[in-house]
Every structure is written in structure tokens, then in C-alpha cells.
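Why run this: before we spend reagent on co-expression, it is cheaper to look at a predicted model of the complex and decide which construct boundaries make sense. The entries below are exactly what would go into the expression plan.
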Amino acid sequence: AQSVTQPDIHITVSEGASLELRCNYSYGATPYLFWYVQSPGQGLQLLLKYFSGDTLVQGIKGFEAEFKRSQSSFNLRKPSVHWSDAAEYFCAVGAQGNKLVFGAGTILRVKS
Amino acid sequence: EAGVAQSPRYKIIEKRQSVAFWCNPISGHATLYWYQQILGQGPKLLIQFQNNGVVDDSQLPKDRFSAERLKGVDSTLKIQPAKLEDSAVYLCASSRTSGGGETQYFGPGTRLLVL
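The model came back. C-alpha cells follow.
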């Protein structure tokens, strides 16, 4: 069965510092992988997705993620974090029929 | 383009009562999903529709939850009777098709508290 693990429940970074959020997945075939962001009281917004081709994917708001098949990972990165990036981030794998299986999420706090 | 609409945004009920949530997907999107997000967890798929047919309801507690999408557009999710453990955010999402890798667009969710 498909599963997603986000090892870090909370991460705190200083404004302007770099960010990496970890995601590991379990899926038998070539996965479709997604990162979504959820601000308090809001729905989920897609940051980026991977389904084939270049393993380094660029997304919105300056985010990028790298697919590493050998490590079953799809980590999210941003070179310089802004206070407005504080939110909860979810990694997901697309299963059969485009159903999404989500990780438990990582809450990002930004220190000024 | 209008996004996914959901109502109500908040609902408080007592256990054993019934409740219904409504979702209007993005125009032209054939696939509609209902997810349950319990506090501290990621969303979990409850049911997926393709037009007005059910594609996947394997994780829907059918003894108390029901959902319909009669005309292949908007959808209603109902809980009857509600239990304390149903307290969660119910998210509706839609996508153009159910093809792999299709982006799902999410509504703002309905936050349910069962007392």
C-alpha cells in the first residue's frame, strides 16, 4: 500500500534562512508526487508536483523539490524563507485513480 | 476561474445528530473528492466521484456516512448519526479528470466539532 512519511512534525527557521522539508514515500510504481501548503483556516494549495522527466521540480513561491528514486524521497526546499511561508506543508503520493495519500504534515514556524 | 466552494465553513453539533456538507467543484471538473482531515493528521480520502458515479468509497464509514453527486456537479456529504471522533475538517477537491498526476484543487473546508 502507498504511504508517505514526513519525519519532522515541527520545524523552526529564521527569516532569510534556507529550508528543507523531508518526505519519504512508499509506492510500487513510478510515483506522482505533490507538495501542498495549508495556511490556518484555508484549504490546500499546490506548490509543485512531479510525474516524470527532470527530477528537480520548480514550484510557486520560490519552492523546489527533488525526486530521488534511490532514496524514495521528494524533499522540498527554499533558499530563503519569508515570514509569510509559515504554514503546514503536506507531501502526497498519487495512487491509482488519482487518489492522494498524504503524509501527516510538517508545521513550519518562521522566526523574525 | 472560481475555486471549489464549500459550505458551511463551521458546524457544531451534538453526538448522534446529523449534519450535511455541500461542495461545488470548479466548473468542468469531472472528478470530485471528499477528504477527512483529523487534527494533527494529513487528509484521508473518504470518497471519489467521476461525474455522478462513485470511483472509490473504500474508506467511507458507510454505516454513518453517505455522499451523492446526483447531476455530476455539486455534491453533498452527510453524517448520521455523528460520533465524537467525526470532529475534523472535511475538505472537498476537484480535478479535470481522474488521470494520474492531475492536480486536485481544494476548497476551504468545513470544520466540524461534535460535542
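Chain A has a mean pLDDT of 94. Chain A touches chain B through 23 residues (CB under 8 Å). Bring this page to Monday's planning discussion.
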